[in-house]
Amino acid sequence: xxxxxxxxxxxxxxxxxxxxxxxxxxxxxxxxxxxxxxxxxxxxxxxxxxxxxxxxxxxxxxxxxxxxxxxxxxxxxxxxxxxxxxxxxxxxxxxxxxxxxxxxxxxxxxxxxxxxxxxxxxxxxxxxxxxxxxxxxxxxxxxxxxxxxxxxxxxxxxxxxxxxxxxxxxxxxxxxxxxxxxxxxxxxxxxxxxxxxxxxxxx
Length: 203
What we know:
With 203 residues, this protein is an all-alpha fold. It has one domain. The chain is 79% helix and 0% strand. The protein contains 8 helices and no strands. The protein has helices spanning 7-19, 23-59, 62-68, 70-93, 106-118, 121-130, 143-175, 179-201.
């Protein structure tokens, strides 16, 4: 289909990659918990934009450059790990009430999710090594094929992200009634993000 080898498997691989617990998932859940469904939707947009940047950078050959120069890739990896840890520490040490969704505009969540996705080494590896496996050289149509892949990834990410955020919003509405539990879950999310940062920096 439009130069994509096994389109069904390609869609399944994207969905599986999204469903794996990782920084992006926690970014969506945390944004929804703080800013409601609007915050979660903004974070979903940030993830989509981050994915698109990585995909088109891979198309332009930047991924090949990273593969040829491990030092550059390591720099990106450490930058991503540091950013995740910084976001996590902010959640852990935030003062009660300082993260009220009323005080934070939706574009904050979009920007944060964008950089988490853009600096996620696993996402970089996915676009650098995995998605080219689904390009059919015999039927490849250049930009049309890449465009179809980009649109497919964006649509699946939007559906998955908004579904996850709707579920998280329904749960967080009950959690917000218990401030101590909400604060504990916020700190737990921060611990996970710091953990992701440490794990990514040690790979």
